[in-house]
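agent> call fold_tool(seq_1)
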Amino acid sequence: VRPVRVIAGTFMTSLNGMGFSISLLNVVNTSIDGAPNMVELLDAPSEVTGWSAPIRKTTWEAAAGRGDGTAAEEGAAAAQDVKPSGLQYDQESAKKSLTTALKNVIAAEPDVTRYDTAVGDGDCGIAVLKHLEERPLTGDLVVDVAGIVPVVENTMDGTSGALYAIFLNALVHALRTQSPGEASPSLWAAALRQSCDALSRYTPARPGDRTLVDALYPFVETLASSGSVVQAAEAAHKAADATKGMKASLGRSVYVGGSGYEEVPDPGAWGLACFFQGLAGN
């Protein structure tokens, strides 16, 4: 994340609410033809009571050393080169499996949205397919997974988007620690376990809390014990289906209320299970 503007002040207050909050606004690709983009709108003069932008636009431009750049360029994150890891895999087979998995998620989107509307607020999205079309896989595992990370960070909203971003960044690091060679199921399982451990430091969600973790953990554990993506995907699907009737202890479902959770699975777990099914060729 590279900030292009920092606006600090007393924008929201609460009695007995001592502390502070930090809000992040994604300003990447917010331009609309014929209209100002998000950064330009933030820089625009305003007489609204309580709103202030104490750091002037020219100050940012001078500090960044790119005073002649456009606002769109300021909002775009610079791509970073990732060194090859020596972890090799069949990129054609991987692209086929990944494409099937993503198409599964897209096909399941109406159901996921319906489930999310019943127990959440209907946020769901994915753009990795476009990335695969525009940027062919290299065959180096770390390079290719690292290439997907910014796509997820910039296009997936909500808590799930943040969790996936944390998990995938941890996965890149975990894969980097593996010995060079062919990427086997056991290597994947070891890296995925490390990623789960990293994710657990940022969220208290565990199996049984009715979250995407209910599908993630069974997939990883079954892959580790069996070495079979098919069996791991089936375990994830079974676990996701078992979230029907499971009362949430975390996430938006806790305070949305109602009885919708009794009829539908957790949308995050279900969407992830559909993804895993696609990886398994189903």
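agent> call fold_tool(seq_2)
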Amino acid sequence: MKKVNKDIKYKRTNLKRFITIGLCTVISGAGIIHTTETFAESAPTNGEFATYHLLEKIETIDTIEQPNIADNGQYATAKWVGDYYLKQDGKLALNQWIEDHGNWYYLKSDGKFAHDEWIADYYLNTDGRLASNQWIEMDNTWYYIKEDGRLASNQWVKQDGHWYYINEKGTYEANQWMGDYYLTSTGALALNQWIQDPNTNEWYYIGSDGLIARNTTIDGYQLADDGTIMPDLSVLENKVNQTVYNGQCYGLTAFYVDSLHGPKLMGSGHMRAETIGSDYDWASYGFEVINNPTYDQIKAGDIIQWKANTRLAPGYYGHTGIIRGKSNGQLLTYEQNAGRGQICYKYTRDFIQQDVKSIVRKIM
């Protein structure tokens, strides 16, 4: 900003297209001067100069370093002059969007292009171009801008060959499930890789379609129908058709718990299969207990307890076994002292939730 004198002389050849009574823009060799004052033209004092008198005193003016004058003395149109843009009519673009060579820019009230900031729902890059199909970082948070320049929200987007889920705030989700899909720490959809669920600590293998691999073997690991890694049940498989410990159902479960370095069940003084889940300090051995489990909660490797006086356990003690899998709403088990007598044997059981007291699971 600077002061100007009341009378200013300009070359008439440069001004004849721009200075008329009532205009608010004056062109000089110093640049474009714009003000709210009104100028009046006097008669030329010679063939080269005309004098313009201010009808009112100008307190301040704004200047632009480059004049709106082409080499031939005509005013420039539809072009950039430094950080400013001159429209088709030669006027300075103010408070508006303009398109230049396929890119959109916003010219602010001072005539300069906006950059590194939001204008309404749109973000302008450092060079002033409207952001499109790209990530932007603000306050250490990454946001995704769609093709139309607006912030993405509540949708999947693909960038550089990876899929991301953008939440309602415009940021990507990470380290969590989105339906059947898992988003990694970078936010990218997991593909062809092992991931560990941060909530359950379970490992899953995600295939090329982004879905959990199930009922198959990956890298030597057998995956259950829920995608979790099945425990090594070979210790029980090797005992099929054999009597284990005392031949009772309790004895088979005690043998399996011993193989997992859990509490000693045999000789503990406890005898009821129904109360195995509450008779021992399972947590101190790295196990968890789930009482009254649903079918979906039961997994291969779980130790299951049936209540006393139910179809599988008509007597006082209840019944116990080990889950080897699930199929069509049924449980696949290893049990002892059941229909085949006092030997370890494989059974298929209907799941009746009210008959199941608890399951015990090794988690550490």
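agent> summarizing second result for user.
Residues 10-60 form one domain. The longest strand covers residues 319-327.
agent> awaiting next instruction.
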